[in-house]
Amino acid sequence: MAVAFNTDHEVEYGAVEQISPLIRRITAENPSKFTFKGTGTFIVGQGDDVAVIDPGPRDEAHLRAVLDAVRGETVTHVLITHTHGDHSPATAGLVARTGARTFGFGPHPAGAVSEAEHASADIDRDGGEPADPDEVARRAEQAERERPDTDFVPDEELRHGDRVDGTGWSMEVLHTPGHISNHLCFALAEESALFTGDHVMGWSTTIVPPPDGDMAAYLHSLRLVAARPESIYYPTHGPAISDPVPHVEALLAHRLERERQIVDQLRRGPTTIEAMVRELYADVAEELHKPAARSVHAHLVALLAEGQVVSDTGAATPDATYSLG
Questions:
Q1: Is residue 123 pLDDT above 50, yes or no?
Q2: Model pTM?
């Protein structure tokens, strides 16, 4: 099933956008094939009780922009959707300058895969450095900026159904694992809005990278948010989603269709992830085949756990040969 993605999203880096009565957004200048135009840091509330959601990457200019936006106000809460390197590393600097308390599911999980790790692995597998030294430096800088935030430990650990309250705003906490096991979404009651982090995005599907990324958990988390009443979603990357339930249902149908395609390929005989990606993603840019392989791998992990699929290694490993169970 085709998903109607929206890539019409213009940003002015460092500028403060008032996107609703309670919400401001500042976008970091860290565009990439994984972050789209960059990380959107949200500021909720105003005056003496302000919350910041996902302070952003290791980028001093972005941190200064966020601090400038709340000058004269009191930041009391820093809410973290998850600990990938484009979402939470600026938390330490923000807290050092504001004294705010931090809220999240927990530290970066063991086994969670970052895009920086994949970028580094790609350099290694290319057989040495690319010919262009500037490209080497660019990729190394990006890998450093996207390194996971292993330093983050929340002052308060949040669990599904918890509430975080401030003056004039209140958040319900949703645990939405799949992309990463410590992923949270935050529902703003006053505006029927959901901050979805990387769980639901309007410009792209979400990467679900094993071993910490879990496709079965991701599908469950999609069903969880689709059953809720929020009327608008604010992902950390890209534009708002103004008709969210049909969009989530389309994402869910897309994933289930991909699962059916994988099973159909296995009906023809044993095969590998690499071979499946070449066929299933033939119309997708080759530079995206590596993240696509991680999604196929995630589907196979779930299918193997259900007993629908077996592998020659006995486990759902990236290099295994898979067959129907």
A1: no
A2: 0.91
